[in-house]
Specification:
By secondary structure, this protein is an alpha+beta fold. The chain is built from twelve helices and 15 strands.
């Protein structure tokens, strides 16, 4: 009976109630959005790489090296000479290496030059291996292995030709159309930047950047962007890292992926805290608007209070009625804010995935969101208690 009566009362004041709901929906959308993006981005970053002991690149910040080599975000300050790469790769403590060459793109997707060692040794999530669901890895110079999202978005199949463009923008005025690549394989989805990557052979990258007369020679790269290192024993990690960082022949930097990720989270924690505070302040202002709307309705509902008292309603009945009305508005706003966020994620998911290499899931039924929803309902009940108590006092005086 109380819920039915509260619903009818809200419908009678649908103008002010609608405006209050809109304000709360927007604030709850922001609250859910900040928490969801923070959680999904952290999971996406953490699951991108596994089992790599060191990442080596030109001297710069370790975050910059991590971002461009693993997450395809940003650009390197310099390249590494092939000679230095080979010198480190042949170290007795090194079990395997994965060379990486960046700088080209295909229809907005990053092109990564590498070797078959990439498919053999690269791991993601909990040391999951890359799985080629169609075709094979590199067999010839101009073979391409596509990430799952590239193949799906561009509707590419095995055997399709691909033209690589210079630069990493969506639009490029320099295309290497004299050397078309051919799709040889398609990877299974990983939920990492691998899905948005076009993988080609290092020799192919070298060939498209050389003059036709040079192609008869062995196409050995002169430089690469970075490389990943797997060691025979973890004990040698810090020693090799120190040796690479102090190399006299070339200014190089070796980083531990886990340490670099920890630095990233520390850097982001300030931003996370600030966004969270702003979100709750926005919600607090919406709650105050709800309380003001309920308080303003008390005088308008004097006749309703009088009639309820005549039929035997106790003052506590009015108190509970106001609380239920506030909670109904809050509950409707939670559902509206969640629906708005889900729609935004569905619309923006492809763009975020392509441009930033981040996979944002659309599952909002998580423990953290449930905690936020519970906090919203408790905060609503607390804020609504003041106008509800005023209604209680008014009922006592009738």
């Amino acid at each position: 009976m109380l819920i039915k009566l509260a619903t009818k009362s809200l419908l009678d004041r649908k103008g002010s109630v609608t405006l209050t709901c809109i304000a709360m929906i927007i604030s709850i959308f922001v609250l859910f959005g900040v928490e969801h993006i923070r959680k999904e981005a952290k999971e996406s970053f953490s699951s991108t790489i596994s089992g790599v002991d060191l990442i080596v690149g030109a001297k710069s910040g370790q975050l910059n090296l991590l971002l461009y080599s693993v997450f395809r975000m940003g650009s390197p300050v310099n390249n590494i000479s092939w000679r230095s790469y080979q010198s480190i790769a042949t170290d007795p403590n090194v079990a395997w290496t994965i060379p990486i060459s960046l700088g080209d793109s295909h229809k907005g997707f990053r092109v990564l030059g590498t070797s078959n060692a990439y498919f053999e040794h690269y791991r993601y999530a909990k040391k999951e291996k890359l799985d080629i669901v169609q075709g094979t890895e590199f067999n010839s110079r101009y073979d391409v292995v596509l990430g799952a999202k590239v193949a799906a978005d561009l509707n590419y199949k095995i055997g399709n030709p691909i033209i690589v463009s210079h630069g990493i923008g969506d639009t490029s005025f320099t295309t290497h159309d004299q050397h078309p690549f051919t799709v040889a394989g398609i990877l299974a989805p990983t939920g990492t930047p691998v899905d948005q990557t076009v993988h080609v052979k290092l020799e192919g990258i070298e060939a498209i950047h050389q003059t036709p007369s040079a192609e008869a020679n062995v196409l050995q790269p002169t430089s690469i962007t970075a490389f990943m290192v797997g060691l025979k024993s973890r004990i040698a990690t810090f020693r090799l890292q120190r040796e690479i960082n102090n190399l006299d022949s070339e200014p190089l930097m070796a980083i531990l992926p886990g340490v670099a990720l920890s630095e990233l989270w520390r850097t982001m924690s300030i931003v996370e805290g600030t966004l969270g505070l702003i979100s709750w302040l926005v919600f607090a202002s919406a709650l105050l608007g709800l309380a003001a709307m309920l308080a303003a309705s008390i005088r308008e509902r004097k006749k309703e209070t009088y009639l309820l008292r005549i039929i035997g309603a106790q003052p506590i009945f009015l108190f509970v009625l106001f609380q239920i009305e506030a909670l109904l508005i809050s509950l409707a706003s939670i559902l509206g804010g969640g629906a708005l966020l889900y729609s935004a994620l569905v619309i923006a998911q492809k763009s975020i995935s392509t441009q930033f290499g981040l996979h944002l899931g659309t599952n909002l039924l998580t423990g953290s969101n449930a905690l936020i929803a519970t906090s919203i309902l408790l905060a609503t009940a607390f804020v609504a208690s003041l106008p509800a108590f005023q209604a209680y006092n008014q009922a006592k005086s009738v």
